[in-house]
Write a structure and sequence with these properties.
The structure holds 2 protein chains of 2 kinds. Chain A is mostly helical. Helix content of chain A is 65%, strand content 0%. Chain A has helices spanning 2-15, 25-37, 41-53. Chain B folds into 3 domains: 7-109, Butyryl-Coa Dehydrogenase, subunit A, domain 1, CATH 1.10.540; 114-211, Beta Barrel (Butyryl-CoA Dehydrogenase, subunit A, domain 2), CATH 2.40.110.10; 213-359, Butyryl-CoA Dehydrogenase, subunit A, domain 3. The interface between A and B is medium-sized, with 14 and 16 residues.
Chain lengths: 62, 360
Amino acid sequence: MLASFAAAQLAVDVGGPQALLDAEWGHQVSALPGLRSAGGTEEILRNVIGERVLGLPPEPRI
Amino acid sequence: MRHALTEEQTWLGDAVAGALARQDTLRAARAALDGAAPPSLWATAIEAGWPGLLSGEEVDGAALGALEAMLVVEGCGRVLADARLLGHLPATALLEMAGDRALRADLASGRCRAALVDGMADGRRPPAVVARRDEGGLRLRGRVEWVLDAPGAGVLVVCGEDEDGVPMAALLRAESPGVGVEARDAYDATRSLASVVLDDAPAEWLALEPARVATARHLQRALLGAESLGAAGACLDRACDHARERVAFGRAIGSYQAIKHKLVEMVRRIENARSLVFFAGWAWRSRPEEFALAANAVLVGAGDALDLASRESIFVHGGVGATWEHDCSLYYRRAELSRRLAGGADGAADAVAEELLRGA
């Protein structure tokens, strides 16, 4: 996800404001935040990696 | 393409850890900051066979490749051990491509130690070393700063350009006339760095295709990156150990998302860099035309990993992390200096961009 964000931002930086209206990269800039939040995915994944891969103690779960 | 270590490569990693376990390199790093001379690890390197990692079997070298060399320096990086391989191994790699000579065996055994002096052009900067021919032979002129492992090296392998702007490499002994090696103090006292000054120094031209001379630079960057990867891994391990033990507000601090996510970001960058190490190791053997891209990418990725890991490790440890007694500060010094060596993180990033644009 972070790589897609960075790539889209770079493409629009190079293309200028017109690129935000562009069908390809402009669309990505608008669509990516929604994709990232689909399921709070990134934060959950970081929790999972921290707990399962690094063996860190879990947050208290109610 | 399977990105996993072979059994032999795993044993090599274990052997490196074993060889270094007998030295207390972290205590030595701290003592070096207080002015003590860092103990030489060259004898350890010789015993373990590291000087000849990239040298051919006919000179009793191990005939291994960039991946194995990166594994060895990664192990060194974990414990901030500098065995002077970043200067020596790229120099031997270039000599191995330049025809047979008696020196190959001396370098492979470690009887003689070499250092790469990279005076090639770099992006917008002209070459730091220029070679010209006169009736006496080949002569080198120039000045290269912050040369890794130059102090005490018996042999210098110098890269630069000839008067027509064609990349070249040459060999000379450190005691040759016209050669000045001025050791420099460094922010990270585990390093051995010098300014190398060449004043019409006579040298022996190395028979290499011009396009291959830069291989030494790329290999040195890959090794510096792999070493940084090791250090980053050590920072992560220490920070995780602390996060599991330290209790604040009733629970281990590693249970708080802010700390956990910080550590996971370290993992993300480290694993990214590790993938790039595999890429570079594979390219060295199987796709040499991509080695320049891969090697420079290793330095960019691993540099990012160590920069983050060295800082965040201090923060996870809290106030004590920033104190003199704590090891975190030694890794921080390693990070701050490493990102500015061998062309720096920027030089490597420029090289990645150039390779990508060239291939486009």
